[in-house]
TrEMBL record:
<dbReference type="GO" id="GO:0016787">
    <property type="term" value="F:hydrolase activity"/>
</dbReference>
<protein>
    <submittedName>
        <fullName>Alpha/beta hydrolase</fullName>
    </submittedName>
</protein>
<keyword id="KW-0378">Hydrolase</keyword>
<dbReference type="InterPro" id="IPR050583">
    <property type="entry name" value="Mycobacterial_A85_antigen"/>
</dbReference>
<dbReference type="InterPro" id="IPR000801">
    <property type="entry name" value="Esterase-like"/>
</dbReference>
<dbReference type="Pfam" id="PF00756">
    <property type="entry name" value="Esterase"/>
</dbReference>
<dbReference type="InterPro" id="IPR029058">
    <property type="entry name" value="AB_hydrolase_fold"/>
</dbReference>
Length: 258
């Protein structure tokens, strides 16, 4: 595998931005790791999103993500978005436009990754789980699958517990409800469309996680709406041991072309 730290200028944000990128490399002599490449000119790609207190380096620092993806021939793009909740902030930067439009286009211009829907996936933890489902439910035409690990799927809890910060991101609760930032609203829209091309969704959360009840709430609504959801729960808290284990399950679940 090849690992790259990419620092670049974002026209959308008006500032320099960063992402880490793992690219497949076919090797036969590397000791202790099996690496593969599909042989295609453009690799399948997983956009892997960080949580509220983290940045683009965190998945590499807290898990063995590079080793886990090595046999799969898949690229991984890990961007930094601060504490933005992957939103166009009411007072701040347009991180939603950045993550949904500019970043994928730039990544494809810099690196040999595919733009085909069947080759594009997104996953994340906590705030990043919210961002992953937001991307997939907002753009089902672009993503074949999305995974949320201990996701902050009902952002109302954040608005209630961090009122001032949340107001700078989302505005008021009334502005949030029924908007493009409301995953429950997006889920209803996608279900009402009855699209045959809904992205596959994977959701997991530990039963001791402080976000467990919100995850159960989203699970129940998604299943009621008939969304294609795979749900996984078991013992676990909001911590990296859980996420390191479950990102491996996510990679096994991804509908990668054989």
């Amino acid at each position: 595998m090849a690992l790259m730290q990419c620092d670049f200028y974002s026209e959308t944000l008006g500032v320099s931005a960063s992402m880490n990128v793992i690219l497949p490399q076919r090797t036969t002599t590397q000791i202790g790791m099996s690496s593969a490449s599909s042989g295609e000119t453009r690799h399948p790609v997983l956009y892997l999103l960080h949580g509220l207190s983290d940045d683009h380096t965190i998945w590499l620092r807290r898990t063995s993500i590079e080793r886990y993806v090595a046999p799969l021939g898949i690229a991984v793009v890990m961007p930094a978005v601060g504490r933005s909740f992957y939103a166009n902030m009411k007072q701040g930067y347009d991180y939603w436009d950045f993550i949904s439009e500019e970043l994928p286009a730039l990544a494809r211009s810099f690196f040999p990754i595919s733009e085909k829907r069947e080759d594009n996936f997104v996953a994340g933890l906590s705030m990043g789980g919210y961002g992953a489902f937001k991307l997939a439910l907002s753009h089902p035409d672009r993503f074949a699958a999305a995974a949320s690990l201990s996701g902050a799927l009902d952002a109302r809890f954040f608005i209630q517990e961090h009122e001032e910060e949340a107001a700078r991101i989302f505005g008021s609760m009334s502005e949030f409800n029924g908007s493009g930032n409301d995953l429950f609203h997006l889920a209803k829209l996608r279900a009402a469309e009855g699209s045959a091309k809904l992205p596959q969704l994977y959701q997991c959360c530990g039963t001791e996680d402080f976000l467990y009840e919100d995850n159960v709430k989203f699970r129940d609504e998604a299943l009621r709406l008939g969304l294609p959801l795979t749900y996984d729960e078991g013992p676990g808290e909001h911590e990296w041991g859980y996420w390191d284990h479950h990102i491996q399950r996510v990679l096994e679940w991804l509908p990668l072309a054989k």
